[in-house]
Structures are given as C-alpha cells and as structure tokens.
Amino acid sequence: MADLELAVSTVILALLPGSCPTAVNAASPAGPTGERPADALRLHLPLVRRTREPFAERWALPGGWVTPDERLSSAARRTLEETTGLRPSYLEQLYTFGAPRRSPTGRVVSVVYTALVRAPEAADVEVGENVRWAPADALAETVGDLAFDHAEIVDYALWRLRTKVSYAAIAQHLLGELFTLAELRHVHEAVLGKPLDPANFRRTAVASGSVEATEHVQTGAAHRPARLYRAVLPPGGAAGGYPPWQSRPELG
Amino acid sequence: MADLELAVSTVILALLPGSCPTAVNAASPAGPTGERPADALRLHLPLVRRTREPFAERWALPGGWVTPDERLSSAARRTLEETTGLRPSYLEQLYTFGAPRRSPTGRVVSVVYTALVRAPEAADVEVGENVRWAPADALAETVGDLAFDHAEIVDYALWRLRTKVSYAAIAQHLLGELFTLAELRHVHEAVLGKPLDPANFRRTAVASGSVEATEHVQTGAAHRPARLYRAVLPPGGAAGGYPPWQSRPELG
DNA sequence: CCAAAAGTGTTTCATTTACACCCATGT
DNA sequence: ACATGGGTGTAAATGAAACACTTTTGG
Description:
2 domains; three-stranded antiparallel β-sheet; 6 helices; elongated; DNA-binding
C-alpha cells in the first residue's frame, strides 16, 4: 500500500471560437463533419506538454501529485493554477483511474476532476511551447495521442458533461456573469453537438429557475437587444436532491 | 505524495426483510417458491467491527488497502470477500474521499465502491461478533456512529442509488436470476421509499427493454401465478449512451 | 423599408399518471 | 364462491417538440 503514488488530473473545459487565435489549429477546412459556422464556439481544453519520460513531448492533462495535507480538490486547483494559471469557476470530481499499468514507471492512481472556466478567464492562459488549447472533439487530429490514458479520460469527461448538462445547471459556468439566453443556448448546443429550438430552450431555461433576468440588455447588435440573465445558485438546502455534501463548500 | 495511503471501501447493499437485523432468511435461490415475508423488504448493508484503533469497536464499511498490482475494482472485490465472503453481482465506483483529517492516524484516501448483492448470496455472509447486517436507513439507531466518515459515505451511496435506479437497470442485481415484476417493483419501492403503481411500473419496465419474459411462472401463491422475468443486459455497443468503458469488463 | 435575431403563442405529439376492470389461482 | 394479487385497457394530465407569428433594433 505504499508502493503507489496518488496524482490528480483535471479536464478543464472552456468555450472558445473554433478559429481561436490562441488555438494552434490547421484542421478547420470544411471537414466531413464541418457543418459548423467558421466561428462557432467549440469546447476546448488546455493541455500541457510533458518534458520528461514517460511520454516526453506528448500532450497531457494538467495535474500533479497530492501533498499530504491538502484536500483532493485543493490539489486539483493548485496543480491547475501552477501549470496553466487557471482558476476554474466549477470543479467536480469525475472518476479515479488506477489500472496497474496506466503509467510505465510504476503504479499511479489518478483522481480526475472536471473543471469549467469562463471565456474571459480562459483568455488569460499563457499559451506557449508547453501549454496550448485543443478542441475537445478533435484531440487526435490536433495534438496526436495523449500521454497515458488521458484520451480515454477526456472522452469520459465529455460524456459526463453531455449527460449532466441536460439536467443540471452547469453550462453557466462557461459564460461570464451576465449572458443572454442565446449565449446560454449556444453553450448547450456546443456541448450537445446539435441545434436547439430557441423558443423551447428559453422556456425550459427560465422555468428551471437556474437563471434570472436582470434589467440590463445587450446593445450594439443589428437586431432587437437581448435581455441579460444571471445564473441563480440552487437553494442552499437539499431540495434539489443533489449530493448531500455538494451544498457544503467542498469535500474530499 | 508518499506520506499517504490508498484504501478501498465498499457500500454493499442487499434487500432483506426488515424485522430480523442479524438473522438472514432470504428467498429460495431460483425456485419459484419464494414466499414473501410479512414485513417489507429493506435495504441492508454488511458492516465489520473494527478491532484496532482508530475507532476500535466501532462499525465500519468493509475495505482494505490497495496492493500495487491489482485494479482498484479488484481490490474492492478482494477486500469484500476477505471480510464478508460476499461476491457482488454489481460493482461500481462511487467516489473518492480524501479529506486530510479523515483518519486520525494519517492521511488515507479511500476509493469507495458501491456493490449490489442478490438476496441468496447475501444469506451466505457469516454473521458473527464482528460482521453484521444493518438497515441502511437506520444505521445510527442500530449500530451507533460509524467509524471515520463512513456514515456520510453511506448517505451518498444511497442518494446515488436512488437517483440511478430511476434511469438505469440496476435493481435487478438485488434479485435472483428469475424474478416477478412485482418483486422488481418491491425493489424499486424499497430503494425509492415510496409505493409505485403496479400497472404503470409493469409497462415502463418491459418497455425499457431491461427485462425479458421467460416461459416460467411462479406457483404456490393464493392468486394468479406471476410470470418470471430475466434481466437483459444492455447492448454491448455504446447505443445506451453509458460511459464508453463501462461496456468493457472493468477499468481502474 | 428590410434583415436579423429576440421573444411570444399555439398546435401537435409523446409520455406519464391515475384508476377501472378482468384474469387465474389457492383456500 | 371469494379473496388476492397478476395483468390489461383507457382516459386525463403533464410535458416536450415544432413552428407560425410579433417585436425591436441596426443598416
């Protein structure tokens, strides 16, 4: 039980334009599935290039070792900030991966978190030789095979996000404080990968109680101004039926 | 990253008659002669009494240390069998708990699994001075405070089971190979804690495709014999939309 | 005025819920 | 025969999808 190391890794997701200047991409010519507008928002995640064996030069999820006196979630936040400078607005434990041969150098058990960051903060990442954004749905084409089992981890994180976004109010963590319902709908569309009816989305969004209208409106566009909304946190109690301890600040 | 130990614990759930906390009298294995006990079925879980500090004499979840060359799920199965003799029909990772002060003796990170066992196998547990079944919804009243944060873990496992049983076909793992739809409904009722309409439950259960009728019927009861059903595993592919790697045997 | 997107209303369809009713068996 | 739970039918209620339509801005 001692011949074993504990790490944390994080799948951080942000919504960036597909032709984002910071994202080094050459894979945007009208591909086989390229029904997207050129500047459509797509889920991206930051990757770090490994500088040491194993998997030197390969891209990997941000992460690091767990120190003895910090929470697992704190370790995720710390390593995330150390490697990318990001401070996510949403952080949730995803799964713990611990297959014996995940790492060729020895037994490593990784507690993996999923994080969401708002677009403004995502722009603060210092992209460079060893840090870059990559589109979540085309990792292999843009950065090749990820280190370790990280490609599998990303797939699972995306699956979970897709299933969860349909019943939990988490998409708001990918936007700024104020947003239009069209923007929120774009987030859902990018996550789910399919268009949504604007009218029906509006109704379900406001009926869910997860957003509230403000008195502000968005001006400057060549059409009727859209009202700005704000995310409303779920009631502190357990009414929502979510995990009992999710209402408390953090755990684990 | 070395001053830290990795453990697995398991919340094992079985459906047992509520009145006799320790005496296990399960329905006959595959025989259609399963008589229904007068009292309702309730979720129970096996606990082990700690023989050493910390928390000596207190009841705790079965578990143990992870060895360097076994999967996390294998560690869960092994420790479960070592402590209780149980081999669960369903095993799923629940969450990883790693708060710094969980254990007073040092940093322990626990990967917790949820397991379901069928009533016949649950009867094989050797109940004794240091192993006992306790009703899941009344742990404090029957066994007092659990060791460590295990009470919190059980609460979370129950919450997850309740939410998952409504959309995933897992309740069947608490029954034998053949079961009536009334028995399956009793499982759902015990998990959800509320009565369900027999007619509607029947329709949704068969429409979901998670059960298939057999040619056997259950005789011996003072009413019309009930048809016996069998669980049908979800299609091997990813059609169901479940985690990609859940279709493979195991991971992590 | 026109284009474009915000926002509202309504119709249609599918699913869930409630409950009446028949069926088959042991006593 | 009758009590009991198994099993079927059906209509009301709820909710999701589709789409026509009105509103409000910039050009």
